[in-house]
Amino acid sequence: MEAIWCVVQEEQGEPDPKLKIIERPVEDGDEEKKCGGGGGEEEKNGSRGDTVDEEDSEEDSEDDSEVDSEDDMRGWDEEDGNPYLPVKWPWEYPLHICPEGQKYTLEEAKEIVESTWERNGDLLSEWSDLFNNNTTPLPALPLRVLPRVTKNCVSGDDCYHVQYWIGDTDETALDHPYFIPCEMMQVFSLGLSSPLARPINIYGHFSVRDAWEPLRNYLFNRSRNDPAMISQGCSFLPLCSPCRGIYVCPYFLMDVNLWIKEEEGSPDTPLFSGYVEIDTSFAGFGSVLIGRIETVIEVKAEAEQPSDVRISASTSGFDEEISLYDGKFCGSGSMFKHIVAVKKQEELHVVLKMNESTYKWTFKAGIGVVIAPEHPISGFTQYFVMNVSFRTKGKAASAWQWSCICNDIENVSVE
């Protein structure tokens, strides 16, 4: 796969003044981006089926109406004193010298930059030809891959490697402090550029480094010993849950390193390795929705016999489903724990398909379980428990549980 393609949707709201963002100086190729070259106007015009919800509800404005003192700007929740700003400020990152810049001369960096922008332009031109010829289905728009080194890296100026803490490969914190509703991104699927001609095993990582804390937030993460088997004719990677919501105001970086595991005796094949920066100001990127909050879905169950189980989620405003679980389940304990972004005051829908039966739930922040099955779920005779919490402003704002234990169905609010 020479280019990186992904299918995502972005949810945006008014940025909160408490959120400190990465200061981003001008780098090579920015002038081209501002003028529409390599993905500007073409990206805007190339978007199909995007919808804009301009409702700016009173509920959304309530969170932004407070007058911030100097202490508030530092990021402490007035209700319980918990911090809800980044774990580390971007400028507190200890690495101020780009490691890549030490490997190249200024002339070599210039050649790499020119070659990368030329390649990006060629890919965009190919996509534009498909678009103008009304090709169906139209592949996803190719994203702009950053040069592996820039002139800023060599000169010692602030480059994207330093801005996004590339030298730090740690995963973002599991227990990070949660933020108030703001611009977030929900990834529905990760797709290869075309369906596979043969089954392959893929390993490596696909992660996001955002303005909250530029550490890796994984959407795909498999070791060589535990690759994902992608069947022939398929083009999607199985998603894992991010550690936390993805905040995208105004830039974020996709950190990708994917490989194809080959048979013994053959070297593995690189699929894609590099970085892609997304500028969320492009109108063609995703659908604009106001006031997103972070939602955690967790299912615990017990099954004596292996059963094929598929659980998916969807949110108001989008038709796409988020795959939460797809496979065989047997035994007891946690099936999965997944984080999604849900529009404030809107609903979260969860669907379970098993043994040719379908079960549906609907949850809403501030209300709880709106719709749920009235009968036990076949295959889970002992217990099946679904926990849903809507998290905002430093803590879980509301949490509910739907449970079926020994055929006894119960809806409860969890404080």
Automatic annotation (TrEMBL):
Domain DUF6598: 184-289
Domain of life (superkingdom): Eukaryota
Signal peptide: none
Biased composition regions of type Acidic residues, renumbered to the chain: 52-81
Residue ranges of the region described as Disordered: 1-81
Pfam families found in the cross-reference section: DUF6598
Biased composition (Basic and acidic residues): 15-51
Name of this chain's protein: DUF6598 domain-containing protein
Source organism per UniProt: Setaria italica (Foxtail millet)
Phylogenetic placement of the source organism: Eukaryota, Viridiplantae, Streptophyta, Embryophyta, Tracheophyta
